[in-house]
Amino acid sequence: MCFSVINENILFFSLPTVQCLEMTTKRKIIGRLVPCRCFRGEEEVISVLDYSHCSLQQVPKEIFSFERTLEELYLDANQIEELPKQLFNCQALKKLSVPDNDLSNLPTTIASLVNLKELDISKNGIQEFPDNIKCCKCLSVVEASVNPIAKLPDGFTQLLNLTQLFLNDAFLEYLPANFGRLSKLRILELRENHLKTMPNLKELWLDNNSLQTIPGSIGKLRHLRYLDLAKNRIESLDADISGCESLEDLLLSSNMLQQLPDTIGKLKKLTTLKVDDNQLTSLPNTIGSLSLLEEFDCSCNELESLPPTIGYLHSLRTFAADENFLTELPREIGNCRNVTVMSLRSNKIEFLPDEIGQMTKLRVLNLSDNRLKNLPFTFTKLKDLAALWLSDNQSKALIPLQTEAHPETKQRVLTNYMFPQQPRAYLGS
């Protein structure tokens, strides 16, 4: 093998058997570079090799010439079916990247890569990790998404330096019982699996699974900040959720929840709460205790009213309660003075309280598909309002309103040609 240095960043290789070896300028070549073995009797020190997108069917043998110095190997997007044993003699290897190939297994010889820190085997046909993966003590990042992996071996829980684990779109149903030993794990992604029980961890992304219940033990995750349980089959949320005292984002969209526990009000650090697309008929009064809540979405439920305590959500900026059965809003809603976007589309609201005029930071308000006859005169105080939606087929974001006297109370109200709102004419009705 010969190579020449054109400048200090770019290397060009002359390979008799592999024509598609591309070194990217973004990946630093670490080690001493010797001009050419043809002219000097010294061995090249190569630490990074990139064979990505080369249509390779096997690992090039040239790699093994650098087994003492090679630290990063990229074999992305080829048609490699197996990793040869000789590859695992490269004990200096710190990063092995073989995503988007045709691998069906991960050899047990991977145990010899004692310095390996990052492993990417995503988008292959690998069904399991060998138990002796535990020997790769330095592993901190494992990307194994899009593989038919049904379970993790017990040895996996001995990877105590693991900080990031990605296992999206696999066949996982369970995680090892002592998975909680991975105390350094900060990012865990388990989207699109078949999980039936939940691991006891610090950061959980469990959306799009088949979970039906959340065990009370989740309350032990006192450092949990982000919990995504959307698109499952969860029917109830355990009261012990209150133990997640550091929780900032709680996503429960698209489940089968019929109620929220009163203890949800103890999640004092919560800034985002999404419970849209469930079966909620009411919200607990304790919702008002979430003083730091900035985004709240309870759309697509069966709510007939909102608790007056919603007025205590002084940090709220975005509020959505579309597609419910609301007939009115509590007067206390006016105390949510930091709300800039509020959507109440497709409800049965007949009138709005005068206090809505106190929400002076409102910029977008969606009231389409309701039963309003007019708007309170206090709407004139909403100087920042840039979009007021009263109909699904509205041509302009903001249509001028004119003052009229209410025919019964004689109070001043605001109206235009869209009032009174008519229920949407559904096909077949």
Automatic annotation (TrEMBL):
Pfam short name (any one)? LRR_14
Its organism's taxonomic lineage begins at:
Eukaryota, Metazoa, Chordata, Craniata, Vertebrata
- Which organism's genome codes for this protein? Sinocyclocheilus anshuiensis
Specify the Disease resistance R13L4/SHOC-2-like LRR domain's residue ranges.
217-298
Q: Keywords, A to Z?
A: Leucine-rich repeat, Repeat
Per the UniProt entry, what is one GO biological process?
Answer: establishment or maintenance of epithelial cell apical/basal polarity
Q: Name one GO cellular component term.
A: adherens junction
Q: Does the keyword Repeat apply?
A: yes
Q: What is this protein called?
A: Leucine-rich repeat-containing protein 7-like
Superkingdom is Eukaryota
* Sample GO molecular function, one term: protein kinase binding
